[in-house]
Amino acid sequence: MQGNLCIRWSLEPPKRAAELKFFLEDPANFEIIAAAFNQSSRFGRLQSIKCAIAGKNLYTRFFCSTGDAMGMNMVSKGTQHVLEFLQNEFPDMDVIGISGNYCSDKKPATVNRIDGRGKSVVCEAIITEEVVKKVLKTEVAALVGLNMLKNLVGSAMAGALGGFNAHASNIVSAIYLATGQDPAQNVESSHCITMMEAINDGKDLHISVTMPSIEVGTVGGGTQLASQSACLNLLGVKETNRELPGANARQLATIAAGSVLAGELSLMSAICAGQLVKSHMKYNRSNKDVSKA
């Protein structure tokens, strides 16, 4: 998980902002900064720091491990401890807010796609030619071509920000609601690039989804609700993994990515086979002729 804060300097801008940036990013100072952060939690551990300057403003992104929790509150608490330490070292620092949107939480942002946020997962599968033809009712070449023109080129034409997929957010939203995650974080958690490639002399299909910012936890928040707790238990990832803290949350992230892959394959195959509208009309629409109503 990543936290962030926004610091504005009241003296000698922007020189002092640059001095703090160098201080925070200097490996020689990391241990003392990490000690300030880590004292706030049993599981929260500072891993690295990244800074960016805009005029006299310094934006700082903290990269932290948070065990099996999604960890936003944990990161905020640790960040507050670092702020208190920094204000002793840099008394002219004017803290504007503990969140400066450099995280970036609940908003589409390129920084999350590049640096990651929460869990970063790549999921892949090989679908044989027989399955593509008999089950998915289409052809490998057709799927590869549609993925290129729709998910990649079409998304680029639309100026997509992380949305190089067919409908990843549908699956992510469903899993988040079922397992007690923050549904608003579907925004960045649905960043996904779907890739398809013909392999084995063009006979079989290799499909993958790359999801750099899946934000999930198996403790805290909505995970404690009865229905959501039952779903986590069904998936085998309920609460904290005491032998390897963080393992349950990572497993839940892989489940989400695997589900997205299955959803991508299903929808893309339906489009290739010309079944998308037909299936909606058959299973999700009234047969009533509205023109005669």
TrEMBL record:
<comment type="similarity">
    <text>Belongs to the HMG-CoA reductase family.</text>
</comment>
<dbReference type="GO" id="GO:0004420">
    <property type="term" value="F:hydroxymethylglutaryl-CoA reductase (NADPH) activity"/>
</dbReference>
<keyword id="KW-0414">Isoprene biosynthesis</keyword>
<comment type="pathway">
    <text>Metabolic intermediate biosynthesis; (R)-mevalonate biosynthesis; (R)-mevalonate from acetyl-CoA: step 3/3.</text>
</comment>
<dbReference type="GO" id="GO:0005778">
    <property type="term" value="C:peroxisomal membrane"/>
</dbReference>
<dbReference type="InterPro" id="IPR023076">
    <property type="entry name" value="HMG_CoA_Rdtase_CS"/>
</dbReference>
<keyword id="KW-0521">NADP</keyword>
<keyword id="KW-0256">Endoplasmic reticulum</keyword>
<dbReference type="InterPro" id="IPR009029">
    <property type="entry name" value="HMG_CoA_Rdtase_sub-bd_dom_sf"/>
</dbReference>
<dbReference type="InterPro" id="IPR002202">
    <property type="entry name" value="HMG_CoA_Rdtase"/>
</dbReference>
<dbReference type="GO" id="GO:0016126">
    <property type="term" value="P:sterol biosynthetic process"/>
</dbReference>
<dbReference type="Pfam" id="PF00368">
    <property type="entry name" value="HMG-CoA_red"/>
</dbReference>
<dbReference type="InterPro" id="IPR023074">
    <property type="entry name" value="HMG_CoA_Rdtase_cat_sf"/>
</dbReference>
<dbReference type="InterPro" id="IPR009023">
    <property type="entry name" value="HMG_CoA_Rdtase_NAD(P)-bd_sf"/>
</dbReference>
<dbReference type="InterPro" id="IPR004554">
    <property type="entry name" value="HMG_CoA_Rdtase_eu_arc"/>
</dbReference>
<keyword id="KW-0560">Oxidoreductase</keyword>
<dbReference type="GO" id="GO:0008299">
    <property type="term" value="P:isoprenoid biosynthetic process"/>
</dbReference>
<keyword id="KW-0472">Membrane</keyword>
<dbReference type="GO" id="GO:0005789">
    <property type="term" value="C:endoplasmic reticulum membrane"/>
</dbReference>
<dbReference type="GO" id="GO:0015936">
    <property type="term" value="P:coenzyme A metabolic process"/>
</dbReference>
<protein>
    <recommendedName>
        <fullName>hydroxymethylglutaryl-CoA reductase (NADPH)</fullName>
        <ecNumber>1.1.1.34</ecNumber>
    </recommendedName>
</protein>
